[in-house]
Amino acid sequence: MAELGAYRCIECNREASELYRDYQRGVLRISICKSCQKPVDKYIEYDPVIILINAILCKAQAYRHILFNAKINIQGKLCIFCLLCEAYLRWLQLQDSSQNTDPDDLIRYAKEWDFYRMFGIASLEQTSFIVGIFIALWQMRPEMLKKKSDFILLLKALLLSSYGKLLLIPAVIWEHDYAPLCLMLIKVFVLTSNSQAIRVTLNLNQMLPWLAIFIGLVLENGTVCLFQKMGWNV
Q: Which residue ranges run through the membrane (predicted)?
């Protein structure tokens, strides 16, 4: 049996020692939460596609399942892939604005360097955004971030909830007149997912996560302004 606090009830967010009990011979019984008297995690019986749909709908129960009970550890790879998608979008927009069609090797090398530069800028912007959120939450609710594990869990939640950035690639591939609107909607979706992840992780009301995200955006935009003053296209 797992130790108390290893899992969370997806309904009331109370700690639980187990998700189900195995009676062997294929007989499993989902554990019932002692606090709300509901199944600790009904999603353990659900197909991953259903869980993903519920996560897209920003249901708190789906987020609690993913963050506390599913033991998913792909946030690092997901973060890198999302940054690559964002860097590719910026790099493509930069190439569209350039009229130079010279096939010279030096030009191709410069274009390749532009992609690496865009990846670095996207990484610094996301770092600024996350740091801003941590600073805001630390100032508003320092008791919520007492231990190193609290910081790690919140970082994991923010990285996983940024999965919406993967939609940037289809938005670029199927380019049309509404591409700017699509990119704006993707941004709103990612921020909404981030807000829900913060709320679920720290068990906050809906206002504080959005305030923390606002501070994160201010710091991120400050980083953008800094790059622009340096003469870099971002």
A: 115-139, 151-174, 207-227
